Amino acid sequence: MFALRWAVAPLIVFANTPNLHAGNLVTTHKQAAPVQQTISGMVTNSSGEALPGVSIQESGTSRGTTTDNNGRYSLQVSSPNATLVFSYIGYESQNVSTAGKSTLNITLADVMNNLDELVVIGYGTQKKKLTTGASVQVKGEDIQKLSTSSVLGALQSQSPGVQIVQGSGMPGEGFKVTVRGLGTIGDSSPLYVIDGIPGGDINTLNPSDIESVDILKDAASAAIYGSRAANGVVLVTTKQGKEGKLAFNYDGYVGWQNPYKIPSLLNAKEYMSIMNEVRFNEGQAPYDWASLIPKQYEQIMDGSWNGTNWLKEIRNENALTQNHAINLNGGNEQSKFTMGYSFSNQDGILGKPVQPVFTRHNFRMNSEHVLLKNDNFNVITLGENLTYSFSKKSGIGIGNIFWNDIHNMLVGNPLLPVYNENGGFYDQASKVADGWALDGATANPLADMVYRRGQNISNNYALFANASLEIQPIQNLKFRSTFGYKMNASSYRQYTPIFTLSTTSSNPEDDVQQNQGSGHSLTFQNTLSYLWQLGEGHHFDAVVGQSIEKWGMGSDLSVTNSNSIFPGSWDNAWITNTKGVSGATTTLSGAPWGEGSLASFFGRLNYNYNETYMATLILRADGSSNFGKNHRWGYFPSVAAGWVVTNESFMQDSKDWLNFFKLRASWGQNGNQNIAGWQYLATVAFDTHNGYYFGNNKGDLQTGGYPDILPNPDITWETSEQLNIGFDSRFAGDRLGVTFDWYRKTTKDWLVAAPTLAIYGTSAPFINGGDVENKGIELGLTWNETINDFRYGISLNGAYNKNKVLRIANAEGIIHGEENVLSQGTTEMYRAQVDYPIGYFYGYQTAGIFQNTQQIEEYRNQGRGVLPTAQPGDVIFVDTNHDGAITSDDKKMIGNPHPDFTGGLNLNFGYKGFDLSVTATGAFGHQIAKSYRSFADSPLQNYTTEVFERWYGEGTSNKYPRLTMGSHTNSQYISDIYIENGDFVKIQNITFGYDLKSWFPKMPFSQARLYFTAQNVYTFTGYSGMDPEIGYGYDQSWVSGIDLGFYPSPRTYLIGLNLKF
Amino acid sequence: MKRILYITVLALGFTSCEKFLDSEDYTKKNTGNFPATVADANQMITGIYSTFSAAISNPQNTHFYASELASDDRFGGGGENDKDMQGLDHLMNTKPSRFETYWTARYQGIYRANIALANFDNITGWDSEAQKNQLRGEAHFLRALFYFELSQLFGEVPLIIDPVAENLPKAPADETYAQIAYDLQEAVNLMPAVPYTSTTSGHATKWAAEALAARVFLFYTGYYNKTSLPVANSGGTIAKDQAVSWLEDCISNSGHDLVSDFRNLWPYTNEYTAADYDYVKSNKLKWEGDGNKETVFAVKFGTSVDWGDNYQLGYSNQYLLHFGLRSNNGGEDTFPFGGGWGAGPVNSKLWNDWRQAEPTDIRRTGSILNVETDVENYIYGADSQMEETGFWQKKYIPIRAYNSEGTLVNSYAVLSDGASDDMQISHTQDLILIRFADVLLMHAELKEDATNLNRVRARVNLPAISYSLEALKKERRWELAFEGLRYFDLMRWGDAASALAAQEGVDIKNKGIDTKMKAFGGGYKARYEATGGFWPLPESQIQLSEGVMTQNAGWGTTNAEFPGW
Questions:
Q1: Most B CBs within 10 Å: which of A400, A439, A555, A759, as the mutation test of the B interface?
Q2: Which residue in A549, A582, A588, A692 has the most chain B C-beta atoms within 10 A of its own C-beta, making it the best mutation to test that interface?
Q3: pLDDT 10s digits, A434-452
Q4: What is the pLDDT of residue A514?
Q5: ipTM value
Q6: Does any CB of chain B come closer than 8 Å to the CB of residue A285?
Q7: b/e per residue, A392-410, with b = 16+ CB within 10 A?
Q8: In angstroms, rounded to a whole number, what is the distance separating the alpha carbons of residues A681 and A368?
Q9: What does each C-alpha distance from A614 to A64, A222, A660, B134 come to in angstroms?
Q10: Does A504 touch chain B (CB under 8 A)?
Q11: Number of Cβ pairs < 8 A linking chain A and chain B
């Protein structure tokens, strides 16, 4: 039956191969037809550009070819009346009859959402029109055109249901990615699978490396990655080689960044009057400025000095950002390759003179080689992907109120100069010399930033390589084996010189710190896939596979020491240059990363009947070293079905307006195993936090041993179960696409270290201790049309999600948040609690400001709770439980950091050589907790000009209370006066491009596009802070929307060039 | 055939997988292989001691700190935001779970002691039975001390003596005290009777156990109005005679003694400071140092300290930082007394009572800093100092010194021990929990005999007197001022309510403005009577216990919350 001309038949393990039918899935060998004819021509796109690499196939035969680099082709066909199929990714396929002609020039129309396109589904690909799950694909070119230095930054507006929020606007900082709502308070990041290898880091890639990104959102799609798919799966495919002439591309831009919005701070005079008002309200005499700051007082009064605006002082104007990428691509049917190098560099807009810098170099080399081939298909194919990335960054403090330089500048005392007369920092000595006596503790925040947090560099090296072997012994049976290797190394260096900035801020000995770490991980996976057809129209496509992974083979080493022999020199701040070792200043550590491993078996069966009824079954079994012997194995099933309604005969009448309509439904379970190892053991730790000093030698810390957790031998997978119902549809001659999904995702048995009783005497173990539900809908609309030379496209996506905790396995049903978040001495302000969204803001509700004593008395007389100390100008806290007193029982949910609704908008226009695109994102229905000032820390902290809206007499304000010392309940009770709505729409990107080729057709390039881009153009928001997009959540992954002085994302103007040879 | 192939592949796969999935932790041991050796035993015991440091990382919520600020001899102080300090003085609460870190640290210590005591028999390779018994005794001693502190501070607490995690209600005080008595009895019996000098300073000794037993006996019988102390595990009771004989054993056989000059107990007499400090020079004083013969048991400190990145903050004596002079003081003008958070100003009533009772007692000026006479230039109301009296205690306060280059460093410990020159972490002074003078005074009190009372008086050149409880009480107040004992002495003598109430009306300055100490929450007496002198259990723990543990009387209501001045 098969005309096998090659010698690998013994590889066939099936005794009874099903009878295969001819069809588009299987090409059976036929006798060559006697009449032959050659057809040649050129394939171009709608703007007239030659398309290289277009596949041309004679229908019903195995004859085929591809266009060369000039878009030309030539093909021998079997008969004068052959039908040729022209297909190319990203373009609509065309069937053209040769009808006796010998020349056929074809123009292919590009389509954004072509249903014949292939999407990546994990261990394989599938036609988009046959998928049954909810996934979203973003093309590399759509990522590149936004000119961001990070892939995630560009995905923000293009992936409904995937919330991508910047953790900080500081260059090189990451994003928080949440697929369909926060599913856990543990690790909620999705699994990144890069070129088929799970566990990669998308941040090590340059946008120019990307061929496509596919995000698997529903459990059924993601189930193939079982134990790590509970938070969604992001499949990244890097650029792959294409057949054709060598093609060389350059894509680069240079841009200038500035802050979009800077809060206005009090100047010296305003500050002095506000400070005196505080004193007045506290019954104290006003400050005697003339004697407290004699020198500056004179300058302020004679108008020669307005005080220091610390935020302006650290502005790095027109901070540079640039990205350059070159790509070389080529090959023939035997060997294809692509290689690329890219360089990315971004300076921070704030932090001068130690402004953050992020630099990254990427090198990529992907190739594929056919070792053995028969007439119809490739038999043995070898491939490899290699990516190397080196990045380095330096930064300033962007953490909590004790480690946040933006915060420090916002509250910096405006009466303190930056520099003294000699050009040095205004430090303690300068204060003494000038008789600056307002407060001993007040320190120069800019010098503090430079000294304590400004001199650092971290380097990251990431090598990612995989090699694959694919054997296709008989057509459509593929065995694929992939070996992946990942190596990571990092180093960090920091220097803190000797300084004395105030009576309380000094560093008597300098500190040099060096950390190094390196290690690797391995993946080995084998899959067997087969496509077959049974009877008329029953198509099957199955894959079974096995994989093993091992990670954590590496170690860290860290040293801190003092007494540099080059005091004050950052360049010479190396451990070798420090002298002496002492218990007080030397710290050492070195430890293995902690190895872990995962063994897996998986299988998937896709079925479709005439591309009208589809079903998918997936099962994966994972064994993880993170769990005890009896709880290692987890099983993750899923089922999905689809129905293309428009293929039914009863729908034929509506074909002119409804071109395609597919209903989808899926159910599945995924897992999460991401916790520290050995939680199932009663481990005994020996660390420097649990030692003791015996004897009278104060430098000799004795090591203590202690059981560090209560063991939980039953610890096992976190499971996420999801039901998804949706449809894909196309209307109006395929111009309008509508995709809709409804889902309910329940994440059960969170891996949490839920608080346990302190009387147990040691730390809580990880338990399977919580459930959360995310329910939502997603809607995507696209419209594409070409009218003569004018092309335009609109894509609008939106997602609604509701997050609710169902269970937390302790008596309270609460996992508490941290204290001292907004200000020292404040109680917890966020928590995870049953019946509420994860990480909701918790505090007092307020009802304005007491205007006069009469009002307070009325409240008292009505039995409404009033604090005993209340006086006019104080916040009216709401007695929510009506017990006549303001107690902690009155605290309620006062905000939700999760948006109800997120959306993205993309507009594209093209006319001949011109193109214009506009991108916007938005989020609605969430709140931000903002406090630029930490009230109790120091009464002398500066205010923003918002303080002018305070209460200072009856009728002056109903928003902000009277000014008091920081410990007053007005500011120390966490209440909704700190909470604001965070709704926003950001115009993220406007790009205008022109292809010079249309002007100068004789240019040696196939394209020379010059473009101008404005990023972060405008933000529509009622939020008063610098940037409403705030991923920061007090160093915890399950919290966001806390603004303590957030490093804002810049507004950037850039100019770029694409060249194609 | 297909099926067979799959089954074979899967079977092979699964078997090898199990091994592939085994992993080992190379930086930790587990209870399956620890403790096995004597070195393990030492590490296990060290782990118990280290919970002292854990508690002191957050000092303002500890037994020692509370007993100081709540006592009649000191106020709360601190800045205007430091409600935690002022709240303690007024027997009021400031936040729902303020003692949680202390509570956690003590139960960590108890759990570690429970684990140790359950595992001694798994350890092999002892040098001698005495070596094993010394360590066993230390575990008993520490567990007793932890439960005693908890009982003094909170009244009744859950009693856990096995290494299991159990949600238990509060045990009746009698039961907990019986366990404490049992542990101390074991400690006394197990630990070898060798002079204190043969044990490394910081480790508990038989003598420390004997002294602690007497303290427990006095508090339990005094506060609960009993005549003897019950012993758990049907050990009968400890009668007064037993306590007295233990103290006598300690006095005669421990090797402990009083140092020659009372003032040489305190670091302000250290040699680095002395060079620039006339008070010390003219009185020819010289610090006896940490671990001197008068120290029966102390918490130890060291120089590898940070805010938790690599070490614990509590490896330095954080009480000194808290009791230091508030910012703007603490420099050259108040030499040698260093800066801190200004907690616990000394009640001027103590100064006045003392001057009246014993005008020539060198311990008064040896223990109390009078800013009017003892330092060059003191600023009142610095950084919003509250409840300020102009008197500070000198026993636990940063003591500064000039280095060889003439720079004022934050602590003499920078020069003597190589501590970091940082006002917050350079303090290495021992926190003495049991001092030999206390042993003598407890003996006098139990025996109602003035011999040892007069031995304490003789050191400070005060004439011998005959025994009376009044005289004994006064002597304890003078001798042991600011050493964490006063508040509990008042409790066991039944004097607390009236003594605490006497703080009302004392002249103070708030933020530099003259005012008088005032009552909050109904007054000291009402607060003491409502609470019995005990403190609130951490609210979070009550909630986590699902109501198995209940809040103490007098707490959890609005009028128990300190509203601020």
A1: A759
A2: A692
A3: 999 888 889 999 999 999 9
A4: 97
A5: 0.94
A6: no
A7: bbbbbbbebbeebbbbbbb
A8: 46
A9: 29, 17, 15, 76
A10: yes
A11: 277
